[in-house]
Structures are given as C-alpha cells and as structure tokens.
Amino acid sequence: MATKSKPASSSSSPNSTSRKTSWSFFTVLLTVLSPVLVATLVCQLDPFEPAHFPIHELTQPPLKALKKNDHMLQGSELVGFKQLIGPEDIAYDSNSGVIYTSCADGWVKRVTINDSVSDTIVENWVNTGGRPLGLALGHDNEVIVADAYKGLLKDKWRGLHEFLWDILEGKPYGRAMSYDPVTKETKVLAHDLYFANGIAVSPDQQYVVFCETPMRRCRKYYIQGKKKGSLETFIDNLPGLPDNIHHDGHGHYYIALSSEMTVALDLAIRHPFLRKLMGIYTKYVGELQLSKNSGVFIVDLEGKPTEHYYDLGLALISSGVKIGNHIYCGSLLYPYIVRLDVTEHPARATV
C-alpha cells in the first residue's frame, strides 16, 4: 500500500531558514554598527575641537633623577584617612605646626599631626563655598587660597569641572598673574601658556616658577633685578605631568607629577583627534583612568633633578611638601594625605 508523505512544515522550509539567517545577520550587523554610527554622529556634532600642541618642543626623552624611590607607598602612612576629600594642596605653618589643606567639599581644613598619624586632629576651618585649590601663607601668616570658582581669597578664618577639557583642548589660554593686596591690582605677567599650574616664589624673591602641565615643563619669570619681566625655561622634559610646585626652604623645589608620561597620554598630546574622543568620552560616559606612577620630582634651584619619589599605585598626586623628615603628598583623588618618612625610606642612586 502506498502512503502519502506529510508535507514539510513551513518552519523548516528553505525560504524560512534563509529569512531567519538574513534577520540574524541584520541584527548582528545593526548591533555592531549602531554604536559606531552613534559615536561618529556625536563626534561630528560635538563642538569640542582640540588644537595641536607644539610637539616640536617635546622631542627629548624624559629626565631622570640621580636618586629614586619607585615604591613610595611601601612605608607610607595615610594622614586624615576619610576625613580629607581630595586634599589638592598643602601649606604648612611652621610656627603653629599646623597643615592647611584644600578639599573638594569646599573646606580648607587644619590638620595637626603628632608623632603617630592615629593621633591626627582634623578640623573644618574655612569653607570657601567653591573648590579651594592652591594654598600659600602670607606675610602675616594669613592663608591665601586660589579657588577654582571664587578666584583668589584671603582668610584668617573658569570652573574645576572644565580643567580636563582645558588640557585636552590644547590651546594656550593660561596666564601667570600677580595681585597686589594693597592696591588690589592684578597684572598679567605671562600669557599664551598651556594650562599654567602651580607657582612658587624663589627664596631670594627674584623670580617665580610655575608649571605648564601638558608641556611637561616649568618656567621662570623674573619679578626683580636686571632680568625683570623676562621669561625662560626652568626645567623641561619632566617624566610626567606637573601640578603644584613648592620650595622646601632648603634649596629644592618639590614638583608634584600627577602621572608619568604613559603611551596613551603621549599619543593624546600628539594627536588632537584622540583628545577629542577622550573629551567626548568623559562628557557622555565617565572619567578616564590614565594616571599612574604619580609622585614627587625634586630639583635644585638651578632646575637640576636630584630625587624622584613615585609609585605605580599612586594617581593624581597634586602637591608635595617637605616637613621635617617627611614628604606630605596631597591629591585630587584620595580621601587622605600620603606621608612618607624619607629617612627610613630614602631615594637611592639609580644605575
């Protein structure tokens, strides 16, 4: 007896299989291309347009210090743990033995440190209502505060969120300025600087030294003497991005390096399009973690490197101050100040 075979179901027909394959391919293609198309559109429409840095001035290899400690976290102590939010800069009053530090919550805090960090006393001192950054002590021991939102403040009692964009944009908008508290007059000493950052007055009051972060250098501007009004290089080809600079009172400048010059940072400085991508990413997605081997680079009064303290685990160190046998490091990132006893953990001669 002959039997009739059942017709194949539509689900297993060649046409149905072909349609499924086509839709699967289209779905995968759409999934892959959509982010690319959106990113391309955002990149085209976003007005952020970085400029070229003068990379012909960055042709020499990074400088090396005569001595280094590349594991400075080993033996370091954490001062004011969880009581200091992003302590960006540090000023030390040797008369009272108190450290002033500028924090991200708007407070300039007073830190009293004893032999043990466990006995540290942290006080909320003055809230600027903005974001205090650079600190210095005046002639009468008043604390002078550079605030990202409020400008220059003095207390006896363009915003910060744009600072990364200022660096990525690669345009020389920076200036070095002086302010006379008597006449209340502000003068521009130098302009067309690439993210001017940190400033220190020389021990003889003849000049000031300030940093240009993306150019990895510090420059010297004479405020007295025969060279008054002239600008020259103090040190260049630093092994990282300089932030604040402090004189230790004993013939050395302590330059905070927020990061070593990584391959990613080097490529970004050389290629504006990469900086545009980085800027768009930080604007729409989140922060980029590019900093490593942050620390403090020490030079003499002639700008010659002497010592380098850093660690792979440190990021965004923004200030370094020598107090007694210790280096105190502030940062934009950590909820504490890093303290290292350099007599117990010294920098050693490099080979």
UniProtKB/TrEMBL annotation:
<keyword id="KW-0926">Vacuole</keyword>
<dbReference type="InterPro" id="IPR011042">
    <property type="entry name" value="6-blade_b-propeller_TolB-like"/>
</dbReference>
<dbReference type="GO" id="GO:0005773">
    <property type="term" value="C:vacuole"/>
</dbReference>
<keyword id="KW-0597">Phosphoprotein</keyword>
<dbReference type="Pfam" id="PF20067">
    <property type="entry name" value="SSL_N"/>
</dbReference>
<dbReference type="Pfam" id="PF03088">
    <property type="entry name" value="Str_synth"/>
</dbReference>
<protein>
    <submittedName>
        <fullName>PROTEIN STRICTOSIDINE SYNTHASE-LIKE 5-LIKE</fullName>
    </submittedName>
</protein>
<dbReference type="GO" id="GO:0012505">
    <property type="term" value="C:endomembrane system"/>
</dbReference>
<keyword id="KW-0325">Glycoprotein</keyword>
<comment type="similarity">
    <text>Belongs to the strictosidine synthase family.</text>
</comment>
<dbReference type="InterPro" id="IPR018119">
    <property type="entry name" value="Strictosidine_synth_cons-reg"/>
</dbReference>
<dbReference type="GO" id="GO:0016787">
    <property type="term" value="F:hydrolase activity"/>
</dbReference>
<feature type="domain" description="Strictosidine synthase conserved region">
    <location>
        <begin position="161"/>
        <end position="225"/>
    </location>
</feature>
